[in-house]
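Collaborator request, handled under Task 6.
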Amino acid sequence: MTAENDVDLRTRGHRKREKTRTQLIGAGLRVLAEKGEALTVSDVVAEADVSNGTFYNYFADREELVDALAEHLLVTLADSAASEPTADPAMRFAVASARVMRRAEADPVWGRVVLRLVTRGIVHQNIDRYLREDLAAGFAQGRFDTGPDDVTIDQVLGLLVMTLRRIVDGQAQPDAPRLAVECGLRALGVSREEAGELAAAALSA
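Structure tokens returned to the collaborator:
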């Protein structure tokens, strides 16, 4: 076998593994939507139409799968926020934060799965990168008083995570999403009046 054929086989094998993993993630998301956190490996295997052995080639157990599902959901949100068609970092932050809150209100199971990953301290690199880029841009443009330092990142994420937890636990007041977005913007240096306007606009989008 030539070196070129060997590389081609490895490439095809990698594509096949990625396809199977994507198939399992998709099945896991569908089962999660139907059964919530009561999903089992057997449910996912049946939905994906693969064997138990195939599942364990990709995930050590159910817990690792749920972590992968949470990461997938977080990446989807991060990509969505990054593609928001506005040049204003403050509005992008408001819209991205509002989406998280609204999604959690509509689907508490989704919110709990996301919290599971975030509260373990595993924030996907895309989310961290997008947030830091927005804070850096906002600081450079004079929209924010602070840049993408770790303390600011922790402050903003902490606010959103605690609000998300109240929402999924059914303990949040009705206007919690608006208040969280507004407080996040004010923490970055946006005036009270404008923060309120941006939060309202983001939540009505």
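The cover message to the collaborator said: "The chain has a mean pLDDT of 85. Residues 1-59 form a domain with the Arc Repressor Mutant, subunit A fold (CATH 1.10.10.60). Please let us know whether this matches your experimental observations."
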